[in-house]
Amino acid sequence: LKEVDFIAIGSGTVQQGAEFLKEVNFPGAVYSDPQRKTYQALNFTKGILSTFNPGGLGKLMESFSSGNKQRFEVIPTDPFQQGGCLVVSPSNDVVLLHRDDFAGDHVEESKLLNALRSI
Questions:
Q1: Which tens digits make up the pLDDT trace of 61-92?
Q2: What global pTM score does this model have?
Q3: To which H or E segment does residue 86 belong?
Q4: Please, how many CA atoms are within 13 Å of residue 20, restricted to the half-sphere of its CB?
Q5: C-alpha torsion angle, residues 91, 93, 94, 95 (rounded to 10)
Q6: How many CB atoms lie within 10 A of CB 89?
Q7: DSSP conformation class of 107
Q8: What is residue 104's predicted lDDT score, i.e. its pLDDT?
Q9: Contact at 8 Å (CB) between 8 and 38?
Q10: DSSP letters for 30-60
Q11: Which residues of the chain have pLDDT under 70?
Q12: Looking at the DSSP assignment, which residues form a beta bridge with residue 29?
């Protein structure tokens, strides 16, 4: 892979972003967007049914069974806001835009790697 810049934009507070960095070895910058303007601009999914549904509950069970725990102090300001993944080329072309349909609906690793390899 070429050198790329990674940016994470969370919907929580600055303090929650700092907690995220303490726990995760993220190789980039972390920004806080508690008003979720970025999420709105990217038309990311939001709603109670996108959080509590069979897909989301299945991902929750997978996460718990692999040893992960929900830390309530890092729940974002809107727990019903889903995220996604955006890959932009140096010429500002959108190479990949994945919108999570439900909690835990992350982009497939192969799709992300292919997008990164293409830039």
A1: 787 688 766 665 666 667 789 999 999 999 99
A2: 0.80
A3: strand 84-88
A4: 21
A5: -80
A6: 13
A7: P
A8: 86
A9: no
A10: EEE-TT-HHHHHTT--BSHHHHSSHHHHHHH
A11: 1, 56, 59-60, 64, 68-77
A12: 7
